[in-house]
Amino acid sequence: PEPRGRCRPPALAYPRPNPLLGAEEQQQLLRHQPDQPQSPRVLKVAILGAPNAGKSTLSNQLLGRKVFAVSKKVHTTRCQAQGIVTSEDTQLIILDTPGLTSPLKAKRHKLDESMLKDPWESMKHADIVLVLVDVSDHWTRNCLSQEVLKCLSQFPQIPSVLVLNKVDLLKKKFILLDLVAELTEGVVNGQKLKVRFDPEHNSRSSSKTPKISHVSLSEIRAYKSHSLQEAEKDQDCSLHISSDTGSGLVSDKVHDPKPREYKYLKKMKGWPGFQEIFMLAALHGEEVDTLKQYLLMQAKPGPWKFHSGVLTNQSPQEICDNIIREKLLEYLPLEVPYGVQQVTEMWEEGPSGELLIMQKLVVPRKSHMMMLIGREGKIISKIAQEAGQDLMNAFLCDIRLKLRVEVKS
């Protein structure tokens, strides 16, 4: 089967106006010295977290364009990739990495060894690290994984920020108070967490969550009790969280965390070295701009690493492969998509300026081929259509995508 997906530009899902560069133009800008403003500033940002915490979604929102593949299945991101945000004289380099996983899980999913090494490599080069936690997952949200704690303890000198993601999916917002207490070990920016209740703010707002950066462990129960009473009055609570770090802060210094042996990490649920906490919903872009402005403010004087016209260090072909793979993960069951090999057979410009792409999908078994094709070719056609649409959003040109499937001989 050789379904085609011809796509024309719809309304952009992201606000960035500039298209991704063509392969030759991108390589040329990557080879040459970047343009430099008069007083350049730069910040390398590593994003760590468990698989499927939303790292690539957050990266895309920070970039303003879908550059990294996103899927509900784990291990969508399989290699370290960089996205570049250039704003006036400041450049953010976003290091999107595979989800931190254990060697046992890596073996189960037949993952490359690079998926175990890349997050650590990102930390070596980072100026700041964002630790992303999916607060909607009640199985994992109450503690940081051992892999994340190992990374943080190995590089305690790198400033770290806790980012609670998918807060829009929480019905009981006061749960965030408990999560903050547990995931920070009660300490943020070297200070015991404290918050002052602002009755005037809560009387005006339907939000049942404090404007929170610092929460006192001694006051959590009292605040939760108040939140419960308020929730009984109004069940339709909405979320309004920002990162006003000045309000409610009580100076109560605590020593900076020191590197620990890994055996001690087993007793820890959180990390006491976070400098700041952000709560957001990356999928919808809620509060992402607040985090972006914070990162821009953290940038230090230094030369830019990339030309201002570069959005990612990935080649257009790599972006194409990742987007098609994203759709394979979405539509194929269980472990099937992890065994699909992608081979680009054609990549050229058509007579009307459209991009012509042909890709071969090689599967290990005939049964996998039948699943990928689907009844009457519906699955492979849907993959081609949706992937073509995403590619068009990335490259801002007409796309003609052709996919074919064959069994590995």
Would you kindly provide a written description of the structure presented here, covering whatever features stand out?
- It is found in: Mitochondrion inner membrane; Mitochondrion matrix.
- Residues 1-38 are annotated as: Disordered.
- It is a peripheral membrane protein.
- Residues 96-99 are annotated as: G3.
- GO terms for molecular function: GTP binding; ribosomal small subunit binding; rRNA binding.
- The chain is globular.
- The protein has helices at residues 23-31, 55-63, 103-108, 114-125, 146-154, 175-183, 199-204, 220-233, 262-265, 288-298, 316-331, 366-373, 378-395, and strands at 4-7, 41-49, 81-87, 90-96, 128-134, 160-165, 187-188, 191-192, 274-279, 300-301, 341-349, 355-363, 399-407.
- Helices cover 32% and strands 19% of the residues.
- Strands 2, 3, 4, 5, 6, 9 and 10 form a seven-stranded mixed sheet that branches. Strands 1-13-12-11 form a four-stranded mixed sheet. A two-stranded antiparallel sheet has the order 7-8.
- α11 (316-331) runs antiparallel to α13 (378-395).
- With 409 residues, it is an alpha/beta fold.
- The protein folds into two domains: 23-196 and 259-301, Rossmann fold, CATH 3.40.50.300; 316-407, K homology (KH) domain (GMP Synthetase, Chain A, domain 3, 2-Layer Sandwich).
- β5, α5 and β6 (160-165) form a beta-alpha-beta unit.
